[in-house]
Design goal:
single chain; mainly alpha; 35% helix
């Protein structure tokens, strides 16, 4: 399951949630979030994320993988 963060205008909020509520609970789960947080702030809240990014930045470029080698 994927998680998507949306910023919804107040004018369509009620209609948007009406639509979402018509999907089965096994397919969509609405996660409450009172205040928007940026992707950067969200990632910083994950334990070990900052350290992981710092370690990845210090790796030699030769250890990297080109886009054509990634298995999408």
């Amino acid at each position: 399951m994927q998680t998507v963060t949306l910023k919804i205008d107040d004018n369509i909020n009620e209609k948007f949630f009406w639509l979402l509520n018509h999907f089965p609970k096994s397919e969509i789960k609405i996660l409450e979030q009172d205040e928007y947080i940026s992707d950067d702030d969200y990632l910083r809240k994950i334990d070990g994320m900052i350290q992981s990014i710092k370690e990845a930045k210090s790796e030699p470029i030769e250890n990297g993988v080109t886009l054509d080698k990634l298995d999408w």
